[in-house]
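Budget justification aside, the reviewers requested a transparent look at the raw inputs and outputs of the sequence design task funded under Objective 1. We therefore reproduce one unedited record. The lines immediately below are the structure tokens for a 141-residue chain.
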């Protein structure tokens, strides 16, 4: 393997028994985000037909990679939405409890939750969870 652009890599590849390599970019949505790298033991191991076959395979691999990325993004968004809905529910429960106890508006109840959050250096969701948990805790008998 003779590669003047990357002589150190070429030396290491040769010492590992690589005589030639073929690299095809994986194009995803008009950008190359990876590569399919194929290595051969002999020099000039890849002809035009091999390169064409590798390009075809790389196109399918790019689609699979794009789908995996989309799935991961959707799963992450789903988890974030689940957490947001759960946080909102507990915030609304805590606000309702404050409104009933203090006879105040929803905005005033949220203001009290926010102030307690700031004063204790805790997230409003955590303050609300504690308030709700304390309300449903059964007294010791």
């Amino acid at each position: 393997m003779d590669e003047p652009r990357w002589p150190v890599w070429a030396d290491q590849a040769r010492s590992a028994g690589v005589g030639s390599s073929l690299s095809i970019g994986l194009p995803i949505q008009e950008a190359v985000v990876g590569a399919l790298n194929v290595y051969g033991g002999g020099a000039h191991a890849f002809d035009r037909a091999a390169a064409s076959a590798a390009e075809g395979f790389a196109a399918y691999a790019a689609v699979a990679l794009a789908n995996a990325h989309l799935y991961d993004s959707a799963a992450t968004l789903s988890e974030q939405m689940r957490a947001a809905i759960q946080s909102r529910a507990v915030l609304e429960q805590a606000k309702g409890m404050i409104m009933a106890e203090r006879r105040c508006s929803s905005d005033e109840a949220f203001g009290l939750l926010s102030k307690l959050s700031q004063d204790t250096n805790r997230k409003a969701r955590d303050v609300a969870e504690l308030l709700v948990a304390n309300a449903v805790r059964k007294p010791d008998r």
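The helical segments are 7-15, 48-102, 106-120, 124-136. The mean pLDDT is 89. Computational costs for records of this kind are itemized in the attached budget.
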